[in-house]
Structure formats: structure tokens, C-alpha cells
């Protein structure tokens, strides 16, 4: 890949030299050729930004509001919509696993989890993992005061049967109940929703719920897939923490250490990792985050190179 990249860079340099002394007719042809090569060069450069062994997998995206009640729940709902719109723009599909609407905020959520499927879904979406901060004049405040809200986004790869994650059936409790999510009245007529509890009552307990459709069997399968992914991610995080401790680094994301701020009353969005700025928050919140995602991937690549 490096040889191909260097060759294309050499072609660009050669064309730039030819353009300096080219006639108008030659210039049009050379500029068209340069544009084609630059497109190939950009595509090859982007290939270098992917390095994870799970980049090609689907992404399980979980969104949770921080403290702040209605305002934070509304913010979580805005992020949920933003990622759904981004996935649509990228030609990806979104499968809702679970969602808990907030009664006080018409479009707000207290929790949402979905699977995004498509080309390099996890490779792209992983840079969104972290704390997102919203600053705005709250529509829920009668005095029109400025509020700051937080929401946490967790992104992990969907782990299939080709990855060996052993789950002892004795460690799992499965509960079934009537769905109360956004699936509609037809979903609510049977006990189709599933709650899987891994090691109930233990300090390392994990709870996964799924109420996506009418089939209890399918909901259980989806919940077990998420549990498997969570256990895999937990083990990966443990290994990373050990490596971090060995290096003496402090890289963990803490609540409040936001990766991106959305300051709506001042019309800007800033990614605190890459430094990338946007001044069109409406477009960003409508899913136009491709540039932010790629700048995040560049930042991650720079961090890897610095180690």
C-alpha cells in the first residue's frame, strides 16, 4: 500500500511540474488527470487510517443521557437521530435493539441501543465513542437560560460465532416481559421482550435488553449477541488498561471529559481530539458528520504513530 501511495504522490508532483508550462488545452487535460489521481490518492490514504481487526464488523451503538433530566434526555435523542441519519447517508442499515423514550421530552430518550451494519461500520463509528457535550438555550426552560448537557456514546463491534467468547449458561438469567418500547401496539400484546442478566447480583453483572420485534426467540438471540460483544469488549478493555498502566499513561475517558462540544447558541461544534471545527450545527445534527468521523480517524492514527 505504501508503494502505491508513493507512486501516486510522484504522479501528482510530475503533473504539477507539467502544468507550470502547459498550454490552455493541455492544462484542461492535465488538471482532469490530476483530479483523478488525487481522488485515488485520497482513497488510498483513508485506507491507512483503518488498523483494527474488527473494523469490518457491524457496530453496536449505545446512547445514554447524563445527569440533567429532560434536557439530557433530549440531547441523547438528538444524538440518536444524528447517528441514524449518518448511517442512512453512508448507505448503512440501522437495527433498533432497545429504546426507552423520555415522557418529558417528545424526542428524548433515557436509553437507546442499535446495530449499524454496512461497510466498515465499526471502523467508522468507533471514533464517536465517548462523552458528547451540548450547550444551548434550553427549550424546556421558561426563563430561556443556557444549559449544558452530557450524553455518553458507547460503540463496540458486533461479535459473531467466529470469535470464541465462552458464556456459562449457569451465569445467565433470562427474563421475558411485555414490550414497552417504540415498537407499536402490536409488539405490546405478548411477552416478547427479553432481558438477559449475566451473573445476577455480582459486581461484574451485565444486563442486556431487547424488545425489537414480536419474536421472543429473535429478541433473545439479539440480546445474547450484545452480551457476547460486551464480554468481548470488557476483556479487550482490561488488556488495554493493563498496557496503559504499564506505560504510565492516563487515557481513560472520564465522565465530563467530552470528546466533542456542540455549542448551539454560538453556532459551532468542536472536536476536542482533532481540533476540527464546524459552524453548521443543523447539518451536523442531521447526520452530516462524515468530515468529523474522518478527522477523528486521522487523530487516532496519529496517536498510534506516536506510541
TrEMBL record:
Residue span(s) of domain Prokaryotic-type class I peptide chain release factors: 178-194
Listed GO MF terms: translation release factor activity, codon specific
Parts forming coiled coils: 5-47
Highest rank taxon of the organism: Bacteria
Gene3D superfamilies: 3.30.160.20, 3.30.70.1660, Release factor
Cross-referenced InterPro entries: PCRF, Pep_chain_release_fac_I, Pep_chain_release_fac_I_sf, PrfB
Keywords assigned by UniProt, alphabetized: Coiled coil, Cytoplasm, Methylation, Protein biosynthesis
GO cellular component: cytoplasm
Family recorded in the similarity comment: Belongs to the prokaryotic/mitochondrial release factor family.
Name assigned to this protein: Peptide chain release factor 2
Species, as recorded: uncultured Truepera sp
